[in-house]
Design a protein that fits this description.
CATH architecture of the largest domain: 3-Layer(aba) Sandwich
Bound molecules: adenosine-5'-diphosphate, magnesium ion
CATH topology of the largest domain: Rossmann fold
Length: 370
């Protein structure tokens, strides 16, 4: 006997700078979801944060498929609330949800908190781990405390910059030139620059502050190799698994926005050519980092490997790209897990997590009332 497919909400678009990538990720996940197991309910969110109904979301995807810009349109009738009754009831009817909004509002715990409040099972990390991974300043503190190598850095608040810009530039120069300046909560390399001399500092810092109220200034790893590792949760409480490693090669100064999405010369190599010792080391550190932030479901750990073979964990992504050109699904594909099975597993993990949380809550309530 075959059972009815369950309803899988796929949330995409959103108010982040990675809107277009999110649309592409959703197209890939929707295209791969096993239709015998899942009936996909698309839930598109416009750049202004308005949720479209499933019907309008589907029309938006159809239009994009036929060549319209990769952009969720704003709702035709202006609404004062970001989410209509119709979109809310479609969301509440879902058996599970796959949040695929990258960056702020989607990957930083905000959407996860909303889904928790609605008691919906969802893919990926919970509120805490999502918020930590998105905030590079907080994340680096936690990672370094766990003994994970991260490039030396300072965090600068907007207030420090406003009151003492000279002092900030002086403090940054102690890291040595060149250094990297980046918004603490960003993505897709937006607002990031490499500063080669004191003269370039102010402009780079102002650019990063245009994206966030806190920034990082980080020692530059010279001519690094960019290596990525996927981590995937396991059902029944088993340890998470790590993927083979992937490498990104760019001809640009660093892996900036253009290199990521526009430059046809950027190469994704999976699996990467690395000796076994480095491979194991990077995979172990990925697992360590997963535990350090309390990740669930999936994480892509991005490393910089120096010319001397020294490794540095650059950042953790709790909603990695799922586009047809993205590294996370590709790394599992090369290890024998096609995207449709990866999606299945991620969704089942979200369902399992909700059941486990309910059990813990029931136990805690029982204990509290004894
Ligand atoms: N400390 C560093 N040394 C060398 N390159 C860096 C450093 N920090 C960032 N980069 C370059 O900038 C890119 C984007 O930085 P990252 O911290 O991953 O931000 P994002 O979240 O925007 O991807 C990296 O992939 C790398 O090419
Ligand atoms: Mg990055």
């Amino acid at each position: 006997m075959t059972s009815e497919p369950r309803r899988l909400g796929v949330i995409f678009g959103g108010a982040s700078v990675e809107h277009t990538i999110s649309v592409r990720s959703a197209q890939a996940v929707i295209g791969a979801a096993d239709t015998e197991r899942w009936r996909v309910i698309p839930l598109a969110v416009s750049r202004s944060g308005h949720w479209l109904t499933p019907e309008h979301s589907r029309s938006a995807l159809d239009a994009i498929q036929s060549g319209a810009p990769e952009e969720v349109p704003e709702p035709m009738i202006a609404s004062s609330t970001p989410i209509s009754h119709e979109a809310t009831s479609a969301l509440l009817d879902c058996d599970a949800v796959f949040p695929l909004i990258h960056g702020t509002t989607g990957e930083d715990g905000v959407l996860q908190g909303f889904l928790e409040t609605l008691d919906l099972p969802y893919v990926g990390s919970g509120v805490g781990a999502s918020a930590i991974a998105m905030d590079k300043a907080r994340c680096k503190q936690i990672l370094s405390q766990a003994g994970i190598p991260v490039a030396p850095w300072i965090a600068v608040a907007c207030e420090d910059w406003r009151t003492d810009p000279t002092g900030v530039v002086r403090q940054a120069s102690q890291l040595g030139y060149p250094y990297f300046v980046k918004p603490s909560r960003g993505g897709s390399s937006i607002g990031i620059s490499r500063v080669n001399s004191r003269e370039e500092a102010a402009e780079a810092i102002a650019m990063a502050f245009a994206c966030d109220s806190e920034i990082l200034i980080e020692e530059a790893i010279p001519t690094p190799r960019e290596i990525e590792c996927g981590v995937l949760g396991s059902l029944d409480g088993d340890s998470p698994i790590v993927s083979p490693l992937g490498e990104i090669r760019t001809k640009r100064d660093f892996y900036d926005y253009t290199a990521k999405y526009e430059d046809p010369q950027t190469e994704l190599i999976a699996p990467a050519e690395l000796d076994q010792e480095t491979t194991l080391q990077l995979q172990n550190v990925s697992l360590q980092a997963w535990r350090a932030i309390g990740a669930e479901g999936m994480v892509r750990a991005d490393f910089l490997v120096g010319p001397d073979g020294q490794i540095w964990l650059g950042e953790l992504n709790t909603i990695p790209g799922f586009t047809s050109a993205s590294m996370y699904p590709r790394l599992f594909e090369v290890s024998g897990l096609p995207l449709s099975q990866l999606v299945d597993r991620l969704v089942e993990l979200g369902i399992e997590r909700r059941l486990a949380r309910r059990r813990f809550r029931a136990q805690a309530d029982g204990g509290a009332h004894q």
